[in-house]
Write a structure and sequence with these properties.
Blueprint lengths: L1 E8 L3 H12 L4 E4 L6 H4 L30 H15 L3 E2 L4 E6 L5 E5 L3 E9 L6 E2 L12 E2 L12 E5 L3 H12 L3 E5 L14 H9 L4 E3 L3 E6 L2 E6 L2 E6 L2 E4 L3 E2 L2 H7 L25 E3 L14 H4 L1 H17 L9
Parallel strand pairs: 1-2, 1-6, 2-3, 6-17, 8-15, 9-10, 9-15, 10-11
Antiparallel strand pairs: 4-5, 5-6, 7-16, 12-13, 13-14
Helix pairs in contact: 1-3, 1-8
């Protein structure tokens, strides 16, 4: 069994930041990631541009130099690889955590598909990109449906329905339309989302206004069939031909995993995890939460640029705990 002061679950930007701070503090640590480095960013659309500027995505004091005003996914992947190499971070990639069990003697036992670990402290920085918010309608499991838009080329000359009206949906609608798709948006609200990137929102609004992209507002997709879809609109039920559905309905943290460990969640449907905002420590002693996972279902509250500070707060709290636990000499100094 391998023993560490800190075991970090998740090798996204915030998990890496936690590893950097632990290393600077002289604490033993390991970062476990079930997929590749910055797993969530890797699965972003190939041509995605960040809303944040590059300096707001920096960690560990390593400059993030971009060729553009806003960095791209490819630039971010290159940057975080460089960060990992610069600090020689103790990473275990493609090693998913199966169980985290509190020990009666203190600390936690962690079991993965490859190893068993013992850690005095756990940091969960697992993000939210792995579990899509389902539509829960007939046909959602058909091969033509995806919750993860990657690139526009496969949709050339295809009839595409995009569900949603926030950044992911807008990017998918504009990119697939520009590459030759016939695009229809199905939007639950009365308008395009207010949090859509400021350079993309006027673009999608104008494409809808001119009729290049069709949009149904105050509408819901009610059924998906192999060659058509059904949409409930304010004017009634509409059925029309369709080849692909991109359900850009957002994602959520793995709440079942948190509950299995013993992290308390709010019962208001938002599933806010219980933690001390000054230290990021959860209701479980020695188990800390970092990054977007702290926001429950409100996944837009925490992101890279405003949760980088979580790493510093957590490591400072652990250092203080270790200091306070250190034995005091029985003989006072002369």
């Amino acid at each position: 069994m391998q023993n560490y002061d800190i075991l970090i679950v998740g090798a996204g930007p915030i998990g890496l930041a936690c590893g950097i701070e632990a290393q600077k503090a002289g604490l033993s640590y390991v970062i476990l990631e079930k997929g590749p480095l910055v797993h969530s960013l890797y699965h972003y659309p190939a041509n995605m541009t960040f809303f944040s500027t590059s300096e707001r995505l920096e960690i560990g004091g390593i400059p993030f130099v971009s060729n553009n005003a806003k960095p791209t996914r490819a630039e971010a992947l290159e940057y975080y690889r460089r960060v990992a190499e610069t600090f020689h971070l103790n990473l275990r990639l493609y090693e998913g955590v199966e169980t985290i069990t509190p020990q009666t003697s203190g600390g936690y036992a962690v079991v993965t598909g490859k190893n068993t670990y013992q850690a005095a402290n756990i940091i969960l920085a697992t993000g939210f990109y792995d579990i899509p918010n389902k539509l829960n309608i007939p046909g959602e499991d058909l091969p033509k449906v995806t919750h993860y838009y990657a690139e526009p080329h496969p949709y050339y000359r295809q009839k595409v329905v995009v569900v949603g009206a926030n950044n992911s949906a807008v990017d998918a609608a504009l990119e697939t339309w520009r590459k030759g798709a016939e695009v229809t948006m199905v939007v639950r609200e009365a308008d395009i989302g207010e949090r859509v990137k400021y350079w993309a929102r006027p673009d999608i609004v104008n494409r809808i206004k001119e009729g290049a992209i069709q949009a149904f507002f105050n509408a819901t997709l009610t059924a998906i069939r192999p060659h058509e879809v059904e949409i409930q609109t304010p004017s009634g039920l509409v059925t029309f031909p369709n080849d692909f559905v991109i359900a850009a309905t957002g994602y959520q943290p793995n709440f079942a995993f948190l509950q299995k460990i013993g992290v308390k969640l709010s019962e208001d449907g938002k599933f806010y995890p219980q933690y001390n905002p000054e230290t990021q420590e959860s209701n479980l002693v020695g188990l800390y939460l970092a990054g977007v996972i702290c926001g429950g279902m409100d996944t837009h509250v925490w992101f890279i640029e405003n949760s980088r500070v979580h790493a510093e707060k957590i490591i400072a709290a652990i250092k203080m705990k270790i200091k306070n636990a250190s034995p005091v000499s029985a003989n006072p100094p002369d």
